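For the sake of clarity, the format in which proteins appear in this thesis is described at this point. The fold follows as a row of integers, each naming the local backbone shape at the matching residue. One such record is shown here in full, so that the layout can be seen directly:
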Amino acid sequence: MHIDALVAELQSFFATKPYVIGTKRDPDTRQLIYYMVNVGETSDSVAAIAGDALQCLRSALDHLAYQLVLAGTGQAGPFFHVYFPIANSFAKYEAKKSGRLKGASDAAIAAIDAVKPYKGGNDSLWLLHTLNNIDKHRLLITVGSAARSVDLGAYMHRMMQTTAASSPLWEGKNFPVLHAFFRPADRMCSLKPGDELFIDGPDAQPNVEMQFRFDVAFSEPGIPDDPVVETLQKMAVEVENLLLTFNPLL
């Protein structure tokens, strides 16, 4: 399956240790800044495999629509007008669904209506449709590295140790390191050298316990910068469940 191949490709990419993080100090504020020294370039294979996965999932929906029209008309076809309707809004979906599903039964159309295959209704299907359209009109869909999370647990541990060192009550007390990863508001997809990941306090010293995690995500304007594999897995589950739901209408 394409998603399994994508997982293997990304595992090989991460095994190269593509991310190098360094620290620098702001000359004015004296704040310590963790930043990207180097970001490895994802191979074209990642984008190509992701595009193939998108096409397979979209095609499965179109085949479903075709089977619904076959069942509704009782004819052998071929029907060249049939596609599973997915749109950028409810209004656009309403405008296109009749043409795309001409011949399907009222029950089948009502079942598709219930899925809400449009932006703001079922965003997973909308995202599948949109990314697939991009991929079909371009050689490669854009993917890139994104910040997944920063270990604020290590940061808080350093703060507690510093506080304890200045308090007789806590003198000699050692606090265990508790890792706690938080997703940043800005994932900075696609990451590039020089991007700042975390800003510590003035005169803070580099913390060797600090950890940063990264994703390879879709990087297209207007598209959520969610991880490629997780996004495709979610779409695959959505499509599989949808196909099972429509079995009684075929």
